[in-house]
## 1
Amino acid sequence: MNEDEAYEYVKSTLKKEMITPYHSDELTIVSSVSRCINCGLCINHCPVVAAIGVDRFSGPRSIAVELSRSPPEYWSTADKIYLCTGCGTCKEVCPKNVDIPEIVNLIRARIFEHRPDLVPKGFMLVNEIITEHGLAFEPWADKEEKEESRDMRLEHLGLPFIPDIVKEKADVLFYPGCQAEERAQEVREAAKVILDLFGVDFTLLNEFSCCSLPSRLMGNEIKARELAKRLKNKIKKLGVSKVVTTCAGCTSNLADLAERDDWGIPTYHLLEFLAEEIGYARLTQALKGKRLSESVHISVHDPCHLIRHTSRRIMDYAMDILALIPGVKVTASEAHDSCCGGGGMVSYHSKDVADAVVKENLIALEETGAERLVTPCPLCTAQIESNLFKSGSSIEVDDLTVFLAQKLIKE
Amino acid sequence: MTDSEYDVVVIGGGSTGTAVARDCAMRGLKTLLLERDDIASATVGTCAGMISSGLKYSDEPDIMAMCSKEVVHFNHIACHIIMKNPILAPLLELSDAASDSSYVDSYSAHAEERDVPAMLFLTPEASREIEPMLHPDIIASVYYEEFFIDPFRLCMLQALDAINHGATVRTYCEVIGFDINNNTELEGIIFYNRVSGTTERVSTKLVINATGPWAHKIAKLADEELDIRLNKGAHVILDRRVVNVGITVKAIDGRWIYLFPHENTTLLGTTALDTWEDPDSLVASFDEIEYLLQSIETILPSIRETRIIRTMAGVRPLVPEWKRPEGKVTRGYRIIDHSETGKTKGLISFTGGKLVMCRHMAEAVTDLVCKKLGKAAACTTHTQALPGNDADVDVAALSKDFGISLHALERMRARRGTEMLKVLELTKEHPEWKTTICTCEPVIEAEMRYAIREEFPQTLNDLRRRLRLGTGPCQGTFCTYKAAAILSEELDLGGDDFLVDILDFRAERWKGIRQSMRGEQLAQEELTLGMYSCVGNLDQSDVDYDIKPWEEGF
Amino acid sequence: MKLKSDILVIGGGMAGLVAGIIAAESGATTLLLRKGQSATAYSSGAIDIIGYLPEATEPFSAPSEGLAAIAGLYPLHPYGVVGYGDNVAPEEVVDTIIERVRDSVVWLKDRLEGTIASVVGDFQSNFSPISILGTTKPTCLVQTTMNPGDIHEREDSVLLFAGITGYPDFNPSSASKTYLEDRIAMGQPPHKVGFCMTKIMPFGKSFNISSIEIARHLDHKGSIETLAEQIDVQVKRIGATHVAIPPVLGIRHALKSKLELEKAIGAEVFELLGFPPSIPGLRLQLALEEVYTKAGGKLLAGHEAISSSRKGKTINSILARSPRREISIDTKAIILATGKYIGGGIAGNENGIRETVFDIMTVTGEYHSAKDIVPSRVTHRLEISPMGQQIQTCGLSIDPQFRPIREDGLEWAENVFAAGAVLAGYNYSVEKSGLGVALTSGYGAAMNAVDRIKGVA
């Protein structure tokens, strides 16, 4: 055998032994989980453990000291590893900051490669949609219907329509994320309203494509890397100097990609952009004189991808900005370590688990006495809204971007 | 024959002793195995589990051929406890390959019978794809495959199979003397029962001395001289599989050392130091740890970023060849019939040998035993499977049926094969025994209870050998006290014994942890002390704890 | 991102939170940075002050006795340092130590009053609560739910250990045997001990149950009655006067559960000291965080201090990193309460021991440089013994103001103070002094930091 044939042979042996060599950029994740001392602090805080118990989901510490130790056996974690919502609570409370969310993705990637039969069926459907459309959701078949839906939403919310702009060399790329692009169109539109109001020189993508997070979460590493590359090319071609998004998941994932793939430009959540680039002075100015029809009592849900995957400071900004709006009263929820349950794509295969996770939040939310919940993530919004609706609650849910846009334009 | 009369008494519960007991029993001999401590508690328990193709012994073609054949036999009789490791030997200079290339041909000559490829050569790019931690300057690598067995389970299964075939296996029985009549014929054997504290005697026609590094001491009890060369080997153990494949490299002194994925850990080994110390007191030294780390560092520069959880050290009982480095000493074994080399009739000893040869050694000595006893029976140890090897197990289905985590069952399968069903049966009556006790490996309570009832452990350390209890990253921090309570219940121990079991197990873990303490193991130890000293106040306990050999001097 | 504070606390365990509370209560804008939780969140529910001298085997009957011994024998012990100051005469040192430790104990008891981690016990004496192993240890305070009451004093006391089926962290059979053998050896009550199993099934299963599930379950209304019914039968069976259960009575409502149980079964109920992952530790952590934020302190979780910038003799800003952002924080004073190996304030490898945030000089328990030591050589062959492990005494050496010092004995920076397990010179697991040192040094470090801020202002 020559060297090439030898390599092919070895690869086939590794495949048989179910070994996918760690990529060099995965070694830091492996070394992070090695730091686990099995103390179990994470068990006390994991919202999935709280919702379904350690027998069904053995919890973050078992992922670190048990399930992630031997790649040839990764397939046998399939009954546990898909139940992690990736909320990052474990990593945040961990004295060693063991990177559980990332090792979960790595293990899922190995199962996807070696035992696709064990990947939840729900994932495969999304995978097909992503492969076909480059989006995490089936796009509207009829463009006009999509626009009608958008206009209805805008009308209902009392928001003006700002036409899409696509141009090169704008200062900011506004990246709404799949949910706001296809489903929660009002979030996309509201962000445009806000950016426009402050005179931001922004553009949209010519053709929207997924940030790759869903592919990573289901374990399709090849597709994830392909989507990341596609997005980078688009951004580079536009020549923007910043990226702004309204989705929590996109916020953390874009930050990862920008670093890993050397984008050389910063990425922001809209809240950060407003706080750091627009400034509270201009926000205060813009909110001044807007007569609010009535005062409103709200509570705020912190998206995991912002507080634990990016920085808790972003939600400090959210609270600062809400404090600038006249007539808004905020009551914090007592739910510690909360997660909407919508993370990690758990709801795609184990809806009961996702719903059990969010349940704890709903109880705490009811106790706040708030009439409205706002959260700066369209995915959290959807997950919480549908569960509140099912529970017969009268509390309404708004994406924070939409809530803010409404306050900014209200006369 | 009564309960105190045997055809053959085997001394030593390591790989060879258990293999001999199994072979003797299978050939219909009345067999007793006596072990001073526990099954696999010494040399075999500190090896990497490689059932070697004999790659390093290219100067001894017969031994290579024998090793290869034995690998085939093991794959036939114990496939459930065997894993295959692909291995890279990366080269930094051409001379690494050229200096002793003979092994390429001799390895490849037997590859086919083991169903592995001949040795292959890979480009540096391909090598680094397979193992991204490799040094960027490597020029090529050699690829080959070896098989690895769980050495604890192998010994245990051999012992259990011996029992299944009528043998008696007694642990914690230390041989203290022989009855030798005036004709220098060995008639009986005297041993001290360490559990009951009594001395016992049995009659026997023959004694097989399979005590490895203690062989000369046992021979001495019969006034026989036995030359042996003791050689210490140490391993460093990492918390998980950090490499994708096994890696071998030449150390600073030109010896081959390795980094092998083993179960769910990685083993870095080994050293070779001639030793005259008491094997019970040996621990890995700072020099040995550095020798291994510095040597592997030449091709895996980031190795020190990985987590070392412990070290282990054992003693090889080599054939006594002087003026030769360890690597050049024959890896064959010798059967010493003391009636020929000395005067005692009925005593036969081993020196030398390797894990992979244990069955072969047993076959050879049992042939001799049968000849001496005038018994005509053929060896079947290579054709009859060890318990659990029968067929594949559908762990996914079992996981659903019994409501136990898939990974816990997959790990149990790797220990027990089809025998795991007996463990699972217990959970029907006792669903609470589905509870995970050791969270790292993991081990569930039912398997602990089963092992306590069926596999004669006396201590938590014995349970560790049967279950891998406490061998993960936390080194038993979180299972010691839970497991000790279960052992106490099953053996109906008192409160003091419960605490002694905890202290004993901690002492044994600490023996290996202490030598390589660094990095997160410092935090792990802070946690352990916080639990057992600070909260449990066991540092102030006045229970009857015996200082261990490696703890003496304080 | 940018932030500003008067006092920046790095580390969110007992030492950091105590320091943060003092700072916030003084009116200083206080920011507490925490990369993760720490050993405090593992703690058993006992707050030890001092139980033993290192290597000694006789427990102290009162903290003051232990503190006096420490002052004499180990003047550089963190408790020893408490006694120094410009206006403390040499003959007043011992009394000063005792007074200052007492002050901080009284202060903590007060702050925890009414929280989910309220404590009982007082500075006058140590007592011996029981652990889940059935052993006892000397401590000063325990959470109110863990108060064993008069079990060791009452001649007719009978103790029932109640376990939970499928909960592996506590085995009442072994614990009761160990405990009874110990009491018999001491010739002290209780003379009768029994055990029983109960069924608590948070998710309808009687296996693989964790502490947190039970605690959450018992927090819910109505769940305590089922437990009470089961224990009641067993209490009657053996005539128990006291019932010991693992530390899982609840997170928010543990005390209520205890009282309800006692009312239902007519015996005293208390939680045992347990191992991590610990519910009492969780209660203590949450309670301290609540006291801190109520005092006006700002908690920034998930951020790790990674570098600092110095201006002359002071550190005036810290760079903190979250998973995907960096924040620059300007500050007037810093309290370093980063813990030891678990907390990550001190780290070691085969080449030596170092402090992780500022790289301040580390020392061994004997106050030799720990910069180049090989950890295994600063250990003992016995893992668990009164000698302890010397490696666990490595850390920072401090001046009387709790400021870490350099090799020349001068403070490393004028405005950097240190507290808790990051300090050298004490071995908490053998001394039984962990949270006590954290409390006292956190209290002292913060007082000094506040003085400095006020002086500067």
## 2
Amino acid sequence: MNASKKLKVFVPCLTVLTAAIAQAHAEEQTGTLATTEVTVKVIGFDASGGPGAQVHGGATTWSDDRDSGLLADLDIDLKLGDSLVLERKGFGPDNHRGSLKGQAAGIGFNGYYSHLRSNGHAVDYTTRPGSADNPVDPAYFTEVGHTNSGFLSRFSDDSPEKVNYHVERTAYGLAIKFKPELLGKGSSFSLAFDGYSRDGNKFATWVAGNGDFVNGAVPAINPADPNDTHIRTPQRWRGYEKPVDEDMGRISWSLSLAPADLFQLAYDGGYEKFNHKARTILIGDFAGLLDNGVTVSPGSVDMPLHFIPDSTLTTHAVRIAKNFGDTALAAGYGMSRLKQDSYLDDVSAGFDAADRFVGKISTENAYLNVSHRVSPAVSVEGHLKYYSRDNDSSMEADGLDRDIRDEWGVRIANIESMNYGLSAMFRGLPAKSTLTVGWKREDSDRDLKYNPISAPTNIGVWPSVSLYTDSTVSDEVYLKWLARPMPGMTLRVTPSYTWANKTTLVTLPEKAFNLKTQLGYAMPNGMHLNAYYHFKDKENDNNSFADTAKPTNGPVVITNEYAQKADDTFHAAGFSLNLSPSETLTASLGLDWVQNDFDTYFFGTNRRRFETPIVFDPRGVSNFKVDTWSVSFNGEYQANERAKLSAGYTWSKSDGNLRTSGLQATGTPAESQNDKIYHTVHSLILGVDYALKKNTNLRVGYAFDKYEDKTYGDLSGDVHTLMLGLALKL
Amino acid sequence: MKTMKHMALLLFAALFTLSGPGASASADAGAQLSKRDIDKCYSCHEEKEDQHAKGAHANTNCLTCHSGADEHVKVAKSKDPVKRPSRPDSMACLSCHKNDSKRMNWKFAEHHKAGVECRDCHGMHTPKVNKRFDLALWRTDKNTQLCANCHQDVLARFNMRSHHPVKEGGLSCTSCHDTHGGKQTSLVAKTAQCTQCHQAVRGPHMFEHAPAAEDCGNCHNPHGTPNRKLLTLAEPALCLQCHSVAGNRHGQTTANANGLRISSTALRNCSSCHNAPHGSGIDQHLRF
């Protein structure tokens, strides 16, 4: 029985036992209100088609059957006054959680666990290269030479064909808090442990380098060419089953003090250890899977794939807060150190411990906030925030067989940023409104390391071939208007405008207009309306490429510049209405719409960016435009004193295009299909809650989830779930 | 930049030296009602007595939170008590709940600035009743259901194809968000919020993907997207906004050609080949 299975059995037993003890304890108490509800559930399910409807927490039986089955579970809801609260929710072995919290004699405590299975990697497998909806292109193979990209003509799936890809994550934690009643006025101390374990497998892909595979019969294509690798090349693109076995444990502590009630002081610390326990797959593991006499190069046999290091993170933070009458201040400083704990030489005999790359990342954060109430109607605020990240990793890794240091790209040795701003809030304006006017600035600098080139080589990444720049300086002005024009109504309007002289990345805005509006109205008749509209228009043409040459032993020569332009427009709107037309009926409906519309240039180059002379070629413009609609209806009807009926339906559709004109060939799959994003989700829920006796309820529920995908048809699938529960109020 | 850093340190130091008497908001905590007086309240507010008995404030008397209640009690006999006791605002709540490091920066919290009071999320007498009735949230925790009352736009994103398992109950809004704090008082890096669960991608990597090292939000929307793996844009558009495509590795010839159209086999998912987008311990092309 593995840890996960043990937990599945242990936790329900423990919760039942705790419930029984707590109930017995409650009966001994006088004047303490105890409520306990235990719901015993039987769940049956039937799934068909692809994994799209079961990505998170999809049903499986205790014996791991994913298609259909019957299983039992338990819900517990126990409250013993304010001193003990125990909850457990179970939706089958793939999705259950529980929590326990309580307090006594100045001590508070809580614990929790949750378990969830994710089938996200089954989605990855279903859409793997070479699958029906994602075919490879044989044309790559027929080109003469095909040494550089011919591997794209074939994808070799080395995983067992029907691997049930999934990852199960179990999180758990315990915390104890010593309150002021115990430690004295204004003081508290808490100690917590949080952790998780992840087990399962995932689908991973990789591409072997040109020299990783050797040998093989060379029949037809160009046997006279000693560089002809056409037997080997189509075998380079591969997929495999990557085991997942990792855990994390974090101890954290927090001390809070209020010395002489002068100010509040808090110190938080943490020590976190992450362990990757699964075996790292090596290229040599694929030796027996190659065909036509191809073998793995002796120099690559020990090359690890997807290496994940163990690591340790330590954190410390100090915060203080103080009020001086109408003035409030808050300041804080925090630091973290992330250190690599396992190395390539731990997972492969091909590396030397003496030449380890040792990763170390340090961060520092600090903030200072001041607010002052000038008058009952006006208050002002200022804030300042500092952040730095230092990559203190060793720069040497001589143990690596490949001369990779000569091809390094952009490396961020240090980031240092300062955010600061001012705002003023005006109260008591018409329509019972408040208005906040503010400005803030982000100023960040980076120490970017490009590949140091030693003469006479002409290989290297130069700033001119990267869109990354070393600084961002942006300003934002904003308004926040909050009004309560009538009882129960709240209206928020928040426009802002951002402009930047420099942007590190094109994902940051050079210019952006942002508007958020929201209306909430709780009507006297119990109806509740919520509506919103958000708009954002963001664009950036600050960053550019340039044609670059680096003659042997000569200086870098930069010629034509090409500005990248990214234009991103976003709309989101929706409303929901909750109403109770009668005492026995509650209903709601909701509608949401989101649209993303993104344009950018596509650039091609004549060679890889660390090779020169490199020439850029604007190939076309992409357009990503997708609308997502979501509609939901819900109703609950108290049919009589015993029976309550409920029904809910949610439908969501994403529909749009991803156009890559100018760059993408018509080929496989068909362009019309490849450009399309079209999928829908249906979710229907029906329920009956029937009171058999005063303290016994029968609960029946039915859920139907369906996912349809017109781009990746193999993902489409559905699942029916029927639940029968007996709720006992003890 | 260095100057700003020094200024910040000086301000911190100044703050530590300021040691005037602390002032805090206070309700009528000093005015303690006797048990008999509380009974007076309950004689009219019978339903509150039931609620109190179930709530966390079961042993708290009414005047602790409701300023003006003493006067209200005096005139209550008139059957038309004009003066209602006030509902407690956040500062009144914090007069008791101040010794919690999680709430000490409420003054600068996003919720506070948006005009949200404690009572908007916390039931003073009993746990808060959700305004939003949505059976699709049947597996979520109570915190998430509460957040959904106001954040409908965010909730809609969890209906998208790729989303964090919040609707499924695997995570809660509060797993990531500090409801009592905000960006101004956060002491973690932009990536630290995500890597408190996703340690496997945090490295340290020999070959970092610089945008991933800066901010996960450069490529991912944590709530939900119509694209795979919470990506803000579908591949290849996401990647090609920053990267050019080398024709001699993604085209169909070995020559240093540029301008040839590229098959969607190469373009559809860049990550099918560059399968270590967060960073790699060994490959500069982030293939594995």
## 3
Amino acid sequence: MVQEAVFRIEGLRKSFGPNQVLGGVDLELRAGVITVLMGANGAGKSTLVRIVSGVYDRDAGRITLAGQVFSPSSPAEAIRAGVVTVHQNINDGVVADLDVATNLTLDRLNGRGAPLVFNPRRVRREAAAVAARMGLSIDLTARISDLSLADRQMVAIARAMAHEPKVLILDEPTSSLSSAEAERLFQVVERLRARGVAILYISHRMSDIRRLADTIVSLRDGRISGIFEDQPLDYEGAVNAMLGKKISAGDISVRAATAPVLHAANLQLTPTSRPFSLTLGGGEVVAITGLVGVGKTALAETLFGVRAPVSGGMTLDGADYAPRSTRQAIERGVFLVAKDRGENGIVPGFNIYENISLPFLKRISNFGITSRRSERDLARTQIASLGVVCRSERDEMSTLSGGNQQKVMVGRWLTQASRVLILDEPFQGVDISARRDLAAKLRASAIGRATLVFVTELDEAFEIADRILVMSEHTLVGEHRNADINVDKLLAEIAGQHQMVG
Amino acid sequence: MNLEQTKTLNAATGAPHPVHKLTIRELAIKYGFLVLLLGLILFFCAFTNGFASPQSAVFILQSVAITGILALGVTATLVVGGFDLSIGSVATTAMMASSYVMVVMGGDAFTAMLVCILIGVVVGLINGFLIVYMRVPDLLATLGMMFLLVGLQRIPTEGRSIATGMTMPDGSVASGTFSPAFLALGRHRFDFVLPNLVPVSVVVLILLAIVIWFFLEYTRFGRMMYAVGSNERAAQLAGAPVNAYKISAYVISGVFASIGGILLAARLGRGDIASGNNLLLDSVAAALIGFAVLGAAKPNAFGTAIGALFVGVLLQGLTMMNAPYYTQDFVKGGVLVIALVFTFALSQRRR
């Protein structure tokens, strides 16, 4: 049933300053077909969506909708032309303080030719019609802020569908839904497919993709790296195309762990996920990899005392370890270099040495009085050993490049000896030379502690780890020694085709 | 890469790196306000009689002492990224409470002061609780608290001011008096250069300014409070008990405000329902003017003290040049606006 494409993108290019984000993307969407778009962080998915929905202008390329040239200059124009986008952030699609009926008819109150005065009864009648077409059973008088996330998502989609679009774009619609809620969403999406809407479904979740995909398109570094449409779909191939096949099992000498440092037994991260066990040994570097949203950050935060596990326990050097705050974790020698340094790491009002000393002020203060001299000494040591490019340790953080900021963030936690050093996406927004410096430093300093690195990119895991663990759906599903890796098996585990491991 | 490494090495070993020259703009941001203050003082010295005298200097300090103390307290809440609108009413509540304790209940000076400090602590704890645990936005929580306290302080006396020998609502006459020790807080003057020159309130202002300045700049607690205000999440992930720091800031603010209230009561010698109207605006203005001092672009104790002094100098000078009293608020507002432009438009440190 190969049909003519309803929506066709040809040679789409977009750059932000010197960064090319999309380097010539070709994509076709067909009526009644769900096309899944997969891509790692920074692959260009969001940019693609924003161009198609009229938020960004394109630099080059041609988009046609049902044979007509499509070049929206605003989101409203894209919607009028019949291309409707439901964005990742659910609350962008609804107005929280208004009721469901008003939300469903909002666009009608607000276009050209909209009436000055509206009749609430008619609004409710129209809303009821929209809801009925979608098979939506929500109280139309309820306020959005009283609804669950899933219901809000339904309202956002129903609102989008009120325009009778030819193309519907769903940007990671399940990222904040539970599996039962997601199931309701799938049914709605399938109903829309049956009505002949061309759907572009953007997701990382393998369970979504298995459930819905008719076609899978992989995006990598701003280019389409694979199109999979033959049944049965080659999920592994799609993940492979998305992560890239530059897989060069690292040229590092793999070390074996000494005695176990941290042991987690039957740890359960969410009420519905399977428990798993984890042992980290002294001197080894362990990488945990997996797609976005599989619970890597949840595990990092559990180990660091930011959140509590649903069940299961941990021991550190043989003694019970159940941190209830970050301070307790730090006192026991468990450190976390958090991801998204701008949000979770850097104190923008502080200079380099004040940022570095932040967690350990207590240890270097006398009777509560800070010693700027020892702070600056510590900072200078880290600047020298990590090769931070700066004028002095008094520089503002904002004057540093991304890679150097990250070196400061890692250096912060290297100033004191740790038992377990956890790094969550430490190479995010870090240039290649800084990444090499950081990886080398982490491996060189690994003796005497356990090091745990969470990365989405496989290359990064190969570059740094002695052992690689795979995470999928909030549990560990695979383990590999970084010496003789069965790459196909690793990819299959990432894609979710796995057996449970002990 | 090689070049970079050399540069790093230089920085790390403390070898001389290129001297950073300040541009005129940076100089203006950093020293502009202090130069303006100096210029103002010189101007008034030249064009008024008696501005350049110890008495005049002490008078200026005395006029800003109570607002300055409140401003130092509110600085602590600004540091953790909050705000405290209740300080003015905490001060007046403390004033009424101390008068009530002594005049109506016949208590001594010590009890009166203890009750005031306690009020400051409790109000600070409630503010902090509302903001941290009830998630009420800081401005709204402290606005509500302000309203509540303005009303509360009038209830015990059914809206009357408190003075020695006042008639109570039930017709009896209050038997207590302001204790001499308490009144001394408002009237005693220490010898300094000249006999009987420096009032107690000025000494308290200077002591508290030094204490809070040292606390914020040189202790780890102060540093963590700045971290909480600058990036709360990062501070939490660095092991800071963020909520405790936030609540402490409101307690500091409450206690400072109640000290201001004690001094106000001691100066007036009565619990005056109508006094203290301007305390909130004046002290918040001083703290915000402080952002501009030395180009800090953030709340800081030294800046707050200079900000309070700036307003005091300006008003004293203008008064001595016969500017009418009703222009005062206009002048203060003008200074605040200029200081805010200094902080936010000229300084690019905040991206």
